[in-house]
Amino acid sequence: MTPTAGTPVRVGIVVGSDSDLPVMQEAGRVLADFGVPYELTIASAHRSPDRVERYVAEAEGRGIQVLIAGAGAAAHLAGAIAARTALPVIGVPLPGGALGGLDALLSTVQMPAGVPVATVAIGGARNAALLAVQILGVAEPALRERYRGYQTKLAAQVEEKAARIASSEAGMVPPREAR
Q: Is the pTM of the predicted complex or chain greater than 0.70?
């Protein structure tokens, strides 16, 4: 979501490679649905460390309040960003490679003491954006209420699906009573 004039970007999404875009664009879609201005850029902790350094150094001054970093394989991007900022950083380990993303998960979640990175599931760009919305919602009641509306919508979807199953030919088996 390109912010309108005078509306600063609030969330920065950084990906290590253009091959990460298909997964990480989902975070952008979620943020756009909530009306949160964001930007998406490519910066590699290993191939363009100076670009990462510049981006992080300028982020807070430009109004960014949360950073989301998605990377696979060595997945050092979220940690490299977190080491350079006081802003909350959410890491998204990306699937792929010989271990299917497990290596990315472990290297994103296993940060040293003093350098926190909130980490979501492998490929969890959607949850990363939702966590960013929750973080921003702490100081913005209207955004927090939109998030509550989202939760209500999820619950209604489950109820609808449960009702559909209950009315189907197979029916739904009621849970056993405690003996």
A: yes
